[in-house]
Amino acid sequence: MSVTENNVSEAMREGVVIPATSRAERFISHDVEAFEVPGGREENWRFTPMKRLRGLHDGSAPASGSATVDADAAPELKIETVGRDDERLGVAGVPSDRIAAQAYSSFTEATVITVPKETKASKPSTVKITGPGEGEVAYGHLQVRAEQFSEAVIVLDHVGSGTYADNVEFVIGDSANVTVVSVQDWADDAVHVSEQHLKLGRDATLKHIVITLGGDLVRVSPTATFADKGGDVEMLGLYFADAGQHQEHRLFVDHAVPNCKSRVMYKGALQGENAHTVWVGDVLIRAAAEATDTYELNRNLVLTPGARADSIPNLEIETGEIEGAGHASATGRFDDEQLFYLQSRGIGEDAARRLVVRGFFHEILVKIGVPEVRERLEAAIEAELEAVGV
Length: 390
What we know:
The protein is of the alpha/beta class. The protein has one domain (about 25-335). It is built from five helices and 18 strands. Helix 3 (about 335-345) packs across helix 4 (about 350-365). It is globular and about 60 Å long. This is Fe-S cluster assembly protein SufD. InterPro entries: Fe-S_cluster_assembly_SufBD (IPR055346), SUF_FeS_clus_asmbl_SufBD_core (IPR000825), SUF_FeS_clus_asmbl_SufBD_sf (IPR037284), SUF_FeS_clus_asmbl_SufD (IPR011542).
């Protein structure tokens, strides 16, 4: 049975429990009360330290502040602040967990960024989202709209302190070509839970890059869907967790129409006691999605004892008429052969370890396409390595 927002809500009111046996049946709703308060044992929450969510999950964290949004955008882009009654909001996807539904029902104003039809942005655009401040809670909503045949590069830069939950929409029109870089570079106290909805039109191309460095707890959940044939999405991620940090990335690629392509590649490094990363990658190829071409990969590099990486790729196929599908995951420590090779050529052990880490991340960094962002991330990675003496 294919579960929709309405029939699941009805089933829940009648006390019927529907097991999540397939991502095709995942529950979605804008209604916060349609979701049960998670206890931490549910599949969607079993890796998340619930006490560190500061009440985002159970309704005990009302908004007490607001995040600020500042843009340094290409002149061709249109940036608006709109009310929650704007009919464009919500078209890219529906919340799939209680925190996303809470964020959707709690924001008062949304930011809408539009790339006009047949327009190529003259420069990358940066949108800075600053948290509400230490001890404060805020909810937000942001939408990026790329109209037909448009091209743009947009950087979402998350900084500051506080507790913040939001929904981010990317509505990519027919034959549009967009690169988005979402950077989570929060202060040490910050908690950020974000559901990101990616919707691609016919022959649309989207490169979606998630970079997670700072924060106490960061959980980003991107979902990609295709509105018509020919869509091509590349989902890339880089994360680096220090002692005590929890970084969680949950992806879902929903192939429901024919002739679409998806590529997923996330890489993470961990160091320090109780550093914890979680990567869950779900890909669903529905019966109607013939000629689908998909592959997902996750790699984790554990730099010190006491750190933990969980990696779970899932691939569900409902038709045999596909171009290709696969997934891979690996978690490990330094490659001794690589270190031996470098040391045998006169490179000291510390320098050799740094080279290995840089090489590990290089495949992601070269794909970013924004020199300023790439240089900033390279400097941040170098600072992380210096902090632990790698």
